[in-house]
Amino acid sequence: MTSEAIRNEWYPVALASQLGPEGRDTRLLGEPIRVDWAAQGRPRVRAADGREMATRLRYGHIWACPGTPSRELFDIPEADQPGRRLVDVGVVRVKCSPLRAVENFLDIAHFPFVHTDILGAEPHTEVGKYDVAIREEVDEVWATKVHFYQPQAAKSAAGGITTEYMYRVPAPTVSILYKTCPPRPGEWDVITLFVQPLEENLCEVWPWMALFDDETPMTDLIHFQQTIFLQDRSILENQLPRLLPLDPGMEIPTRADLTSVAYRRWLKRRGYTYGAQLVAA
Amino acid sequence: MWTPVALSRDVPPLVVLPVVAGGRELALWRSASGRIAAWADRCPHRGMRLSHGFVRGEALSCIYHGWSYGAAGNCLRIPAHPDLEPPETIRVAVHVAAEAGGLIWVAPSAPEAPPPDPGALQPLRSLTVEAGTAAVLSLAGLAGDTLARGHLAGVEVTVAVQPIGPARCALHVLTGAAGAAERIALSRELDALRRRAEAGEMAA
Protein backbone atom coordinates (compact mmCIF):
# COMPACT_ATOMS: atom_id res chain seq x y z
CA MET A 1 0.00 0.00 0.00
CA THR A 2 1.38 3.39 -0.99
CA SER A 3 1.47 6.29 1.46
CA GLU A 4 -1.11 9.07 1.68
CA ALA A 5 1.40 11.56 0.29
CA ILE A 6 1.32 9.46 -2.87
CA ARG A 7 -2.36 8.50 -2.96
CA ASN A 8 -3.63 12.04 -2.38
CA GLU A 9 -2.18 13.42 -5.60
CA TRP A 10 -3.94 13.86 -8.97
CA TYR A 11 -2.92 11.61 -11.86
CA PRO A 12 -3.84 11.56 -15.56
CA VAL A 13 -5.51 8.27 -16.47
CA ALA A 14 -6.99 8.80 -19.96
CA LEU A 15 -7.23 11.17 -22.89
CA ALA A 16 -10.87 12.27 -22.96
CA SER A 17 -11.07 12.47 -26.77
CA GLN A 18 -9.88 8.86 -27.08
CA LEU A 19 -11.95 7.30 -24.32
CA GLY A 20 -14.74 5.42 -26.06
CA PRO A 21 -17.90 3.94 -24.55
CA GLU A 22 -16.01 0.70 -23.90
CA GLY A 23 -13.85 2.48 -21.32
CA ARG A 24 -10.21 1.82 -20.49
CA ASP A 25 -8.68 -0.74 -18.18
CA THR A 26 -5.37 0.52 -16.95
CA ARG A 27 -3.22 0.76 -13.82
CA LEU A 28 -2.41 3.44 -11.31
CA LEU A 29 0.29 3.13 -8.62
CA GLY A 30 0.54 -0.60 -9.23
CA GLU A 31 -3.17 -1.33 -8.94
CA PRO A 32 -5.75 -2.01 -11.65
CA ILE A 33 -8.30 0.73 -12.34
CA ARG A 34 -11.11 1.20 -14.83
CA VAL A 35 -11.87 4.50 -16.54
CA ASP A 36 -15.17 5.03 -18.34
CA TRP A 37 -18.08 7.42 -18.81
CA ALA A 38 -20.91 7.51 -16.31
CA ALA A 39 -24.20 9.25 -17.07
CA GLN A 40 -24.22 12.78 -18.55
CA GLY A 41 -20.69 12.49 -19.90
CA ARG A 42 -19.19 12.42 -16.44
CA PRO A 43 -15.88 10.56 -16.25
CA ARG A 44 -15.71 7.74 -13.77
CA VAL A 45 -12.63 6.01 -12.37
CA ARG A 46 -12.99 2.91 -10.25
CA ALA A 47 -10.57 0.75 -8.28
CA ALA A 48 -10.69 -3.06 -8.59
CA ASP A 49 -13.12 -3.27 -5.65
CA GLY A 50 -15.55 -0.89 -7.41
CA ARG A 51 -14.74 2.10 -5.22
CA GLU A 52 -15.03 5.37 -7.16
CA MET A 53 -12.21 7.87 -7.03
CA ALA A 54 -12.35 11.65 -7.18
CA THR A 55 -12.11 12.63 -10.86
CA ARG A 56 -11.71 15.76 -12.97
CA LEU A 57 -11.99 16.36 -16.69
CA ARG A 58 -9.43 19.05 -17.51
CA TYR A 59 -6.72 19.85 -20.09
CA GLY A 60 -8.08 17.20 -22.43
CA HIS A 61 -7.46 14.45 -19.92
CA ILE A 62 -9.28 12.59 -17.20
CA TRP A 63 -7.65 12.93 -13.80
CA ALA A 64 -8.08 10.73 -10.76
CA CYS A 65 -7.02 10.83 -7.15
CA PRO A 66 -6.87 7.38 -5.51
CA GLY A 67 -6.93 8.85 -1.98
CA THR A 68 -8.39 12.06 -0.60
CA PRO A 69 -7.25 15.03 -2.70
CA SER A 70 -4.90 17.15 -0.63
CA ARG A 71 -5.73 20.09 -2.90
CA GLU A 72 -7.65 20.95 -6.04
CA LEU A 73 -6.19 19.92 -9.41
CA PHE A 74 -3.57 22.54 -10.39
CA ASP A 75 -4.58 25.43 -12.60
CA ILE A 76 -3.22 26.21 -16.06
CA PRO A 77 -4.85 29.58 -16.80
CA GLU A 78 -3.55 29.57 -20.39
CA ALA A 79 -5.76 26.57 -21.15
CA ASP A 80 -8.79 28.88 -21.25
CA GLN A 81 -7.12 31.72 -23.14
CA PRO A 82 -8.87 32.45 -26.48
CA GLY A 83 -6.87 31.84 -29.64
CA ARG A 84 -4.85 28.86 -28.42
CA ARG A 85 -4.94 25.49 -30.11
CA LEU A 86 -5.19 22.64 -27.67
CA VAL A 87 -3.25 19.61 -28.85
CA ASP A 88 -3.92 16.10 -27.55
CA VAL A 89 -0.64 14.39 -28.43
CA GLY A 90 -1.62 10.91 -27.23
CA VAL A 91 0.19 8.40 -25.10
CA VAL A 92 3.67 6.88 -25.00
CA ARG A 93 4.41 3.99 -22.67
CA VAL A 94 7.89 4.16 -21.19
CA LYS A 95 9.73 1.55 -19.12
CA CYS A 96 11.02 4.03 -16.57
CA SER A 97 10.20 5.63 -13.27
CA PRO A 98 7.48 8.28 -13.69
CA LEU A 99 9.79 10.65 -11.82
CA ARG A 100 12.62 10.15 -14.30
CA ALA A 101 10.20 11.06 -17.11
CA VAL A 102 9.33 14.33 -15.35
CA GLU A 103 12.93 15.11 -14.51
CA ASN A 104 14.05 14.62 -18.11
CA PHE A 105 11.36 17.05 -19.22
CA LEU A 106 12.87 19.68 -16.87
CA ASP A 107 16.31 19.28 -18.43
CA ILE A 108 17.65 21.44 -21.24
CA ALA A 109 21.32 20.44 -21.33
CA HIS A 110 20.45 17.28 -23.27
CA PHE A 111 18.87 19.10 -26.22
CA PRO A 112 21.98 19.21 -28.47
CA PHE A 113 22.70 15.50 -27.93
CA VAL A 114 19.28 13.86 -27.78
CA HIS A 115 17.23 16.26 -29.92
CA THR A 116 20.07 17.10 -32.29
CA ASP A 117 19.29 19.83 -34.86
CA ILE A 118 15.76 20.25 -33.49
CA LEU A 119 15.89 21.56 -29.94
CA GLY A 120 19.65 22.01 -29.83
CA ALA A 121 22.90 21.63 -31.74
CA GLU A 122 26.58 21.72 -31.01
CA PRO A 123 28.46 23.97 -30.45
CA HIS A 124 25.55 25.78 -28.73
CA THR A 125 25.64 23.61 -25.61
CA GLU A 126 26.09 26.10 -22.81
CA VAL A 127 23.37 26.38 -20.20
CA GLY A 128 23.44 29.86 -18.69
CA LYS A 129 22.48 30.77 -15.17
CA TYR A 130 18.76 30.60 -14.44
CA ASP A 131 16.54 30.94 -11.39
CA VAL A 132 15.02 28.02 -9.51
CA ALA A 133 12.71 28.17 -6.54
CA ILE A 134 10.25 26.09 -4.59
CA ARG A 135 7.37 28.57 -4.40
CA GLU A 136 6.11 27.90 -0.91
CA GLU A 137 2.81 29.76 -1.34
CA VAL A 138 1.71 27.37 -4.09
CA ASP A 139 4.00 24.45 -3.19
CA GLU A 140 5.36 24.15 -6.73
CA VAL A 141 8.83 23.97 -8.28
CA TRP A 142 9.57 26.81 -10.73
CA ALA A 143 12.56 27.50 -12.98
CA THR A 144 12.63 30.83 -14.78
CA LYS A 145 14.91 32.85 -17.06
CA VAL A 146 16.09 29.70 -18.81
CA HIS A 147 17.62 30.55 -22.19
CA PHE A 148 18.81 28.16 -24.87
CA TYR A 149 19.76 28.35 -28.54
CA GLN A 150 17.56 26.16 -30.70
CA PRO A 151 17.84 25.31 -34.40
CA GLN A 152 14.08 24.65 -34.64
CA ALA A 153 12.38 25.50 -31.37
CA ALA A 154 8.86 24.71 -32.55
CA LYS A 155 7.04 23.55 -35.63
CA SER A 156 6.27 27.22 -36.28
CA ALA A 157 9.91 28.35 -35.95
CA ALA A 158 11.83 28.99 -39.18
CA GLY A 159 15.51 28.76 -38.32
CA GLY A 160 17.54 29.10 -35.15
CA ILE A 161 16.53 31.34 -32.26
CA THR A 162 17.39 31.74 -28.62
CA THR A 163 14.34 30.47 -26.80
CA GLU A 164 13.34 31.46 -23.31
CA TYR A 165 11.72 28.88 -21.07
CA MET A 166 9.96 28.61 -17.74
CA TYR A 167 9.37 25.26 -16.07
CA ARG A 168 6.77 24.46 -13.48
CA VAL A 169 6.10 21.28 -11.46
CA PRO A 170 2.63 21.59 -9.93
CA ALA A 171 2.29 17.90 -8.96
CA PRO A 172 4.89 15.11 -8.60
CA THR A 173 4.15 13.53 -11.97
CA VAL A 174 3.31 16.67 -13.95
CA SER A 175 5.57 19.18 -15.61
CA ILE A 176 4.55 22.30 -17.50
CA LEU A 177 6.86 24.14 -19.84
CA TYR A 178 6.29 27.71 -20.96
CA LYS A 179 8.36 28.72 -23.95
CA THR A 180 8.83 31.68 -26.26
CA CYS A 181 6.11 31.70 -28.86
CA PRO A 182 7.61 32.60 -32.26
CA PRO A 183 4.42 33.98 -33.92
CA ARG A 184 3.22 35.83 -30.79
CA PRO A 185 5.96 37.71 -28.93
CA GLY A 186 4.90 38.42 -25.35
CA GLU A 187 2.93 35.19 -25.02
CA TRP A 188 4.16 31.76 -23.97
CA ASP A 189 3.42 28.47 -25.65
CA VAL A 190 2.41 25.86 -23.08
CA ILE A 191 3.68 22.30 -23.40
CA THR A 192 2.94 19.82 -20.66
CA LEU A 193 3.95 16.34 -19.71
CA PHE A 194 1.26 14.49 -17.79
CA VAL A 195 2.65 11.22 -16.43
CA GLN A 196 0.50 8.29 -15.28
CA PRO A 197 2.48 6.04 -12.93
CA LEU A 198 1.49 2.47 -13.78
CA GLU A 199 4.26 0.95 -11.67
CA GLU A 200 7.37 2.36 -10.04
CA ASN A 201 9.27 1.42 -13.20
CA LEU A 202 6.60 1.86 -15.84
CA CYS A 203 4.58 4.87 -16.88
CA GLU A 204 2.37 6.26 -19.59
CA VAL A 205 3.20 9.75 -20.70
CA TRP A 206 0.59 12.11 -22.12
CA PRO A 207 2.08 15.25 -23.65
CA TRP A 208 -0.44 18.06 -24.15
CA MET A 209 -0.04 21.53 -25.64
CA ALA A 210 -1.82 24.90 -25.73
CA LEU A 211 -0.19 26.83 -28.56
CA PHE A 212 -0.57 30.01 -30.57
CA ASP A 213 -0.14 28.45 -33.99
CA ASP A 214 -2.91 28.73 -36.58
CA GLU A 215 -0.78 27.55 -39.47
CA THR A 216 0.68 24.15 -38.72
CA PRO A 217 -1.58 21.15 -39.43
CA MET A 218 -2.60 19.31 -36.27
CA THR A 219 -0.93 16.12 -37.51
CA ASP A 220 2.40 17.92 -37.82
CA LEU A 221 2.11 19.37 -34.33
CA ILE A 222 1.48 15.91 -32.93
CA HIS A 223 4.28 14.34 -34.97
CA PHE A 224 6.75 17.00 -33.82
CA GLN A 225 6.02 16.33 -30.16
CA GLN A 226 6.01 12.55 -30.64
CA THR A 227 9.39 12.70 -32.38
CA ILE A 228 10.84 14.64 -29.48
CA PHE A 229 9.41 12.33 -26.87
CA LEU A 230 10.51 9.14 -28.61
CA GLN A 231 14.04 10.51 -28.59
CA ASP A 232 13.66 11.05 -24.85
CA ARG A 233 12.39 7.51 -24.38
CA SER A 234 15.68 6.06 -25.65
CA ILE A 235 17.33 7.82 -22.71
CA LEU A 236 14.69 7.10 -20.07
CA GLU A 237 14.75 3.35 -20.62
CA ASN A 238 18.52 3.23 -20.20
CA GLN A 239 19.22 5.09 -16.97
CA LEU A 240 20.63 3.25 -13.97
CA PRO A 241 19.37 2.89 -11.32
CA ARG A 242 15.84 2.67 -12.68
CA LEU A 243 14.39 4.50 -9.67
CA LEU A 244 15.16 8.21 -9.24
CA PRO A 245 17.76 8.65 -6.47
CA LEU A 246 16.50 11.32 -4.05
CA ASP A 247 19.65 11.26 -1.94
CA PRO A 248 22.93 12.64 -3.21
CA GLY A 249 25.74 10.19 -3.85
CA MET A 250 24.56 8.22 -6.86
CA GLU A 251 24.65 11.05 -9.37
CA ILE A 252 26.61 14.26 -9.94
CA PRO A 253 24.58 17.42 -10.55
CA THR A 254 26.03 20.64 -11.94
CA ARG A 255 24.65 24.17 -12.13
CA ALA A 256 22.63 23.23 -15.23
CA ASP A 257 20.82 20.63 -13.10
CA LEU A 258 19.44 22.99 -10.46
CA THR A 259 15.84 22.36 -11.53
CA SER A 260 16.39 18.64 -11.06
CA VAL A 261 18.00 19.24 -7.68
CA ALA A 262 15.01 21.32 -6.54
CA TYR A 263 12.56 18.74 -7.91
CA ARG A 264 14.24 15.91 -6.01
CA ARG A 265 14.39 17.98 -2.81
CA TRP A 266 10.71 18.89 -3.19
CA LEU A 267 9.74 15.22 -3.72
CA LYS A 268 11.74 14.13 -0.71
CA ARG A 269 10.38 16.67 1.71
CA ARG A 270 6.77 15.84 0.79
CA GLY A 271 7.50 12.14 1.17
CA TYR A 272 6.81 11.36 -2.47
CA THR A 273 8.76 8.14 -2.98
CA TYR A 274 6.82 6.29 -5.68
CA GLY A 275 9.42 5.65 -8.41
CA ALA A 276 12.20 6.96 -6.16
CA GLN A 277 14.98 5.42 -4.13
CA LEU A 278 16.12 7.01 -0.91
CA VAL A 279 19.34 5.20 -0.16
CA ALA A 280 22.41 6.01 -2.19
CA ALA A 281 23.76 2.73 -3.51
CA MET B 1 40.62 -13.13 -14.09
CA TRP B 2 40.26 -12.31 -17.77
CA THR B 3 36.95 -12.62 -19.60
CA PRO B 4 36.78 -12.62 -23.41
CA VAL B 5 34.12 -10.15 -24.55
CA ALA B 6 34.45 -9.76 -28.32
CA LEU B 7 36.53 -10.48 -31.38
CA SER B 8 38.94 -7.60 -32.00
CA ARG B 9 37.74 -7.42 -35.59
CA ASP B 10 34.16 -6.67 -34.46
CA VAL B 11 35.08 -3.52 -32.55
CA PRO B 12 36.63 -1.10 -35.05
CA PRO B 13 37.74 2.43 -34.07
CA LEU B 14 34.96 4.84 -32.95
CA VAL B 15 32.63 2.00 -31.91
CA VAL B 16 31.08 1.51 -28.47
CA LEU B 17 28.91 -1.44 -27.43
CA PRO B 18 27.58 -3.05 -24.23
CA VAL B 19 29.18 -6.24 -22.86
CA VAL B 20 28.94 -8.25 -19.65
CA ALA B 21 32.00 -9.56 -17.82
CA GLY B 22 32.17 -11.02 -14.33
CA GLY B 23 28.54 -10.08 -13.75
CA ARG B 24 29.17 -6.42 -14.55
CA GLU B 25 27.68 -4.38 -17.38
CA LEU B 26 30.41 -2.59 -19.29
CA ALA B 27 30.76 -0.21 -22.22
CA LEU B 28 33.43 -1.59 -24.55
CA TRP B 29 34.87 0.99 -26.94
CA ARG B 30 37.77 1.70 -29.26
CA SER B 31 39.29 5.14 -29.76
CA ALA B 32 40.24 6.69 -33.08
CA SER B 33 43.86 5.63 -32.57
CA GLY B 34 42.79 2.03 -31.82
CA ARG B 35 43.00 1.93 -28.03
CA ILE B 36 40.51 -0.53 -26.53
CA ALA B 37 38.74 0.23 -23.21
CA ALA B 38 36.06 -1.31 -20.99
CA TRP B 39 34.25 0.94 -18.51
CA ALA B 40 31.29 0.70 -16.15
CA ASP B 41 28.27 1.17 -18.40
CA ARG B 42 26.95 4.17 -16.52
CA CYS B 43 27.65 7.88 -16.77
CA PRO B 44 28.19 9.22 -13.24
CA HIS B 45 26.19 12.36 -14.06
CA ARG B 46 22.68 10.94 -14.53
CA GLY B 47 23.19 7.19 -14.81
CA MET B 48 22.77 6.92 -18.58
CA ARG B 49 24.35 3.87 -20.22
CA LEU B 50 27.65 4.91 -21.78
CA SER B 51 27.29 2.11 -24.33
CA HIS B 52 24.71 4.37 -26.03
CA GLY B 53 27.35 7.10 -26.27
CA PHE B 54 29.72 8.18 -29.01
CA VAL B 55 33.46 8.14 -29.55
CA ARG B 56 35.36 11.17 -30.79
CA GLY B 57 39.12 10.97 -30.98
CA GLU B 58 40.42 9.42 -27.76
CA ALA B 59 37.32 10.19 -25.66
CA LEU B 60 33.96 8.51 -25.00
CA SER B 61 30.97 10.82 -24.61
CA CYS B 62 27.62 10.15 -22.99
CA ILE B 63 24.71 10.49 -25.38
CA TYR B 64 22.54 12.22 -22.75
CA HIS B 65 24.43 15.45 -22.02
CA GLY B 66 27.65 14.92 -23.97
CA TRP B 67 29.94 14.65 -20.96
CA SER B 68 33.19 13.24 -22.33
CA TYR B 69 35.72 11.03 -20.60
CA GLY B 70 39.40 10.39 -21.33
CA ALA B 71 41.56 7.28 -21.17
CA ALA B 72 41.65 7.12 -17.36
CA GLY B 73 37.87 7.50 -17.10
CA ASN B 74 38.29 11.12 -16.00
CA CYS B 75 35.76 13.69 -17.12
CA LEU B 76 37.27 15.97 -19.78
CA ARG B 77 34.38 18.23 -20.66
CA ILE B 78 30.86 19.18 -19.58
CA PRO B 79 29.25 20.83 -22.62
CA ALA B 80 26.62 22.66 -20.53
CA HIS B 81 29.52 24.48 -18.84
CA PRO B 82 32.22 24.75 -21.53
CA ASP B 83 34.44 26.98 -19.39
CA LEU B 84 34.39 24.69 -16.38
CA GLU B 85 37.38 22.47 -15.65
CA PRO B 86 35.66 19.22 -14.57
CA PRO B 87 36.67 18.17 -11.03
CA GLU B 88 38.99 15.16 -10.76
CA THR B 89 36.32 13.38 -8.71
CA ILE B 90 34.07 12.90 -11.75
CA ARG B 91 35.23 9.53 -13.00
CA VAL B 92 33.87 6.46 -14.70
CA ALA B 93 34.94 3.13 -13.16
CA VAL B 94 37.56 1.72 -15.51
CA HIS B 95 38.25 -1.98 -16.06
CA VAL B 96 41.35 -3.41 -17.68
CA ALA B 97 41.07 -4.28 -21.36
CA ALA B 98 43.66 -6.04 -23.47
CA GLU B 99 43.90 -7.84 -26.80
CA ALA B 100 45.49 -11.16 -27.55
CA GLY B 101 45.10 -13.51 -30.48
CA GLY B 102 42.29 -11.56 -32.13
CA LEU B 103 40.23 -11.42 -28.91
CA ILE B 104 39.35 -8.58 -26.56
CA TRP B 105 39.71 -9.49 -22.90
CA VAL B 106 38.63 -7.56 -19.82
CA ALA B 107 39.30 -7.86 -16.11
CA PRO B 108 38.13 -5.79 -13.11
CA SER B 109 41.73 -4.90 -12.15
CA ALA B 110 45.10 -5.74 -13.67
CA PRO B 111 45.63 -9.52 -13.34
CA GLU B 112 49.12 -10.81 -12.73
CA ALA B 113 49.25 -12.69 -16.00
CA PRO B 114 48.50 -11.40 -19.49
CA PRO B 115 45.31 -12.73 -21.12
CA PRO B 116 45.46 -16.25 -22.61
CA ASP B 117 46.76 -16.28 -26.15
CA PRO B 118 44.97 -18.78 -28.40
CA GLY B 119 47.83 -18.68 -30.91
CA ALA B 120 47.78 -17.84 -34.58
CA LEU B 121 44.18 -18.43 -35.62
CA GLN B 122 41.57 -16.57 -37.66
CA PRO B 123 38.45 -15.06 -36.09
CA LEU B 124 35.25 -16.69 -37.35
CA ARG B 125 32.33 -15.17 -35.45
CA SER B 126 30.78 -14.53 -32.07
CA LEU B 127 27.41 -15.85 -31.04
CA THR B 128 25.27 -15.54 -27.93
CA VAL B 129 23.54 -18.65 -26.64
CA GLU B 130 20.64 -18.67 -24.18
CA ALA B 131 22.07 -21.55 -22.17
CA GLY B 132 24.66 -22.04 -19.45
CA THR B 133 28.35 -22.26 -20.32
CA ALA B 134 28.91 -25.83 -19.08
CA ALA B 135 25.89 -27.19 -20.94
CA VAL B 136 26.95 -25.56 -24.21
CA LEU B 137 30.53 -26.78 -24.00
CA SER B 138 29.60 -30.35 -23.16
CA LEU B 139 26.97 -30.42 -25.90
CA ALA B 140 29.61 -29.20 -28.35
CA GLY B 141 32.11 -31.74 -27.06
CA LEU B 142 34.68 -29.00 -26.41
CA ALA B 143 37.27 -29.31 -23.66
CA GLY B 144 38.59 -26.47 -21.49
CA ASP B 145 36.95 -23.51 -19.83
CA THR B 146 37.98 -20.00 -20.88
CA LEU B 147 39.60 -21.28 -24.06
CA ALA B 148 37.87 -24.49 -25.11
CA ARG B 149 39.15 -26.58 -27.99
CA GLY B 150 37.86 -29.38 -30.14
CA HIS B 151 36.25 -30.11 -33.49
CA LEU B 152 32.96 -28.91 -34.96
CA ALA B 153 31.81 -30.00 -38.43
CA GLY B 154 35.13 -31.73 -38.70
CA VAL B 155 37.03 -28.46 -38.32
CA GLU B 156 39.43 -27.68 -35.51
CA VAL B 157 38.16 -24.77 -33.39
CA THR B 158 39.16 -22.70 -30.40
CA VAL B 159 36.26 -21.10 -28.55
CA ALA B 160 36.72 -18.26 -26.06
CA VAL B 161 33.85 -18.56 -23.63
CA GLN B 162 32.17 -15.54 -22.05
CA PRO B 163 29.72 -16.43 -19.27
CA ILE B 164 26.94 -13.80 -19.19
CA GLY B 165 24.42 -15.29 -16.79
CA PRO B 166 23.26 -18.63 -15.42
CA ALA B 167 21.52 -19.38 -18.71
CA ARG B 168 23.38 -17.20 -21.17
CA CYS B 169 26.87 -17.12 -22.62
CA ALA B 170 28.72 -15.88 -25.66
CA LEU B 171 31.14 -17.91 -27.77
CA HIS B 172 33.95 -16.16 -29.63
CA VAL B 173 35.10 -18.64 -32.21
CA LEU B 174 38.55 -18.88 -33.80
CA THR B 175 39.77 -21.41 -36.30
CA GLY B 176 42.78 -22.33 -38.33
CA ALA B 177 40.56 -23.20 -41.28
CA ALA B 178 41.08 -20.76 -44.12
CA GLY B 179 38.81 -22.24 -46.80
CA ALA B 180 35.43 -20.61 -47.37
CA ALA B 181 33.56 -23.93 -47.47
CA GLU B 182 35.00 -25.08 -44.17
CA ARG B 183 34.27 -21.75 -42.53
CA ILE B 184 30.67 -21.76 -43.75
CA ALA B 185 30.16 -25.34 -42.56
CA LEU B 186 31.59 -24.40 -39.17
CA SER B 187 29.35 -21.37 -38.89
CA ARG B 188 26.27 -23.46 -39.70
CA GLU B 189 27.31 -26.04 -37.13
CA LEU B 190 27.49 -23.25 -34.54
CA ASP B 191 23.94 -22.17 -35.42
CA ALA B 192 22.80 -25.76 -34.99
CA LEU B 193 24.63 -25.99 -31.68
CA ARG B 194 22.85 -22.88 -30.47
CA ARG B 195 19.43 -24.21 -31.45
CA ARG B 196 20.08 -27.53 -29.70
CA ALA B 197 21.41 -25.87 -26.55
CA GLU B 198 18.51 -23.43 -26.40
CA ALA B 199 16.06 -26.29 -26.85
CA GLY B 200 17.51 -27.81 -23.69
CA GLU B 201 19.32 -30.72 -25.32
CA MET B 202 21.97 -32.28 -23.07
CA ALA B 203 25.19 -34.03 -24.02
CA ALA B 204 24.74 -37.76 -24.44
Write out key terms for the chains shown:
heterodimer, A: 281 residues, N-terminal domain of TfIIb, Naphthalene 1,2-dioxygenase Alpha Subunit, Chain A, domain 1, 2 domains, 8-stranded antiparallel sheet, 3-stranded antiparallel sheet, globular, B: mainly beta, Rieske Iron-sulfur Protein, 4-stranded antiparallel sheet, 14 strands, 13% helix, elongated
How would you describe this structure to a colleague?
The complex is a heterodimer of chains A (281) and B (204). Chain A has 281 residues and is of the alpha+beta class. Chain A has two domains: 1-73, N-terminal domain of TfIIb (Single Sheet), CATH 2.20.25.680; 84-277, Naphthalene 1,2-dioxygenase Alpha Subunit, Chain A, domain 1 (Alpha-Beta Complex), CATH 3.90.380. Chain A contains five helices and 16 strands. Chain A has helices spanning 4-7, 98-105, 111-114, 218-236, 258-269, and strands at residues 11-15, 24-28, 31-37, 43-47, 54-58, 61-65, 85-88, 92-94, 131-135, 140-150, 161-171, 174-180, 188-199, 202-211, 244-245, 276-277. In chain A, strands 7, 8, 9, 10, 11, 12, 13 and 14 form an eight-stranded antiparallel beta sheet that branches. A three-stranded antiparallel beta sheet of chain A has the order 1-6-5, with no helix packed on it. In chain A, strands 2-3-4 form a three-stranded antiparallel beta sheet, with no helix packed on it. In chain A, a hairpin with a 2-residue loop joins strand 5 (54-58) and strand 6. The longest helix of chain A has 19 residues, at 218-236. Chain A is globular. In chain A, 43% of the residues are buried. The model of chain A has no long low-confidence stretch (mean pLDDT 94). Chain B is mainly beta and 204 residues long. Chain B has two domains: 3-107, Rieske Iron-sulfur Protein, CATH 2.102.10.10; 122-198. Helices cover 13% and strands 39% of the residues of chain B. Chain B is built from two helices and 14 strands; from the N terminus they run βββββββββββαβββα. In chain B, the strands form three sheets. In chain B, strands 1-10-9-4-3-2 form a six-stranded antiparallel beta sheet, with no helix packed on it. Chain B has a four-stranded antiparallel beta sheet with strand order 5-6-7-8, with no helix packed on it. Chain B has a four-stranded antiparallel beta sheet with strand order 11-14-13-12. Chain B starts with a strand and ends in a 6-residue tail after the last helix. Chains A and B meet through helix 3 of A and loops of B.
